[in-house]
């Protein structure tokens, strides 16, 4: 969901001094070598900084939920398993794309971290599910869903990447979704790498969008957000906001029009802004249900409760 496009080479050693001098003469060397970005003015630097801030927000967004889950112990009733599965699916697409599109190490390592954080969240969910000994008809379906997502991630992650383009390409670092890459000499045609990125980015954006709907339904059904950390969504909102600003601030490459630029990055813009909108709706639910009594849907009747109320 990040627009940033920069001149990079697909071959090893693309960050050497010769390429930097010829391809990004007025740019920042640390940005070029570390992120693959050609930041040549204040707008580009602001875009890079906002993009990095969005990555940090996404990386720490799960920590408040870990704490809340350990403290309250009702993660299995507070969070929707489909929210977790679809979020994992979006991050898995991110990881798959980082291999198929030969992304920078920072992108790949960040994508791996996101998937591991999601898996830890799912593991905690299943732990509390088993701890409360709740058996539902959908348990098997949930396990199958988890297995399918993990199997797809493991299988495609080992697929060979797209063959590098011989010509110079455009790429950028991602926040929580895959970036597209494009040929600087043609603003209309999609390169092979760009098609891969565009396709996976579209799937990733749809999964991120759909992930919010089950959680919104769970909150509405429980009439409570107890057990859900608002900081999880607050940090994601901040991440998507800074990501969107980084998209808007980044200067288009020479020869690339604004319309073409938006078209090439449309899936990630829609995913970012759409997810931001749904997270704001969830924020409204936090305000509405902040003092509401908890209606626990998962836990059965307490075996220690008296049969006849006194």
From TrEMBL:
Localization of this protein: Lysosome membrane
PANTHER family: LYSOSOMAL AMINO ACID TRANSPORTER 1 HOMOLOG, SEVEN TRANSMEMBRANE PROTEIN 1-RELATED
Protein keywords: Amino-acid transport, Glycoprotein, Lysosome, Membrane, Repeat, Transmembrane, Transmembrane helix, Transport
Membrane protein topology class: Multi-pass membrane protein
Annotated family: Belongs to the laat-1 family.
Name of the protein in question: Lysosomal amino acid transporter 1 homolog
GO molecular function: basic amino acid transmembrane transporter activity
Function text: Amino acid transporter that specifically mediates the pH-dependent export of the cationic amino acids arginine, histidine and lysine from lysosomes.
Entry's Gene Ontology cellular component terms: lysosomal membrane
Pfam families: PQ-loop
One GO term (biological process): intracellular amino acid homeostasis
Matching InterPro entries: LAAT-1, PQ-loop_rpt
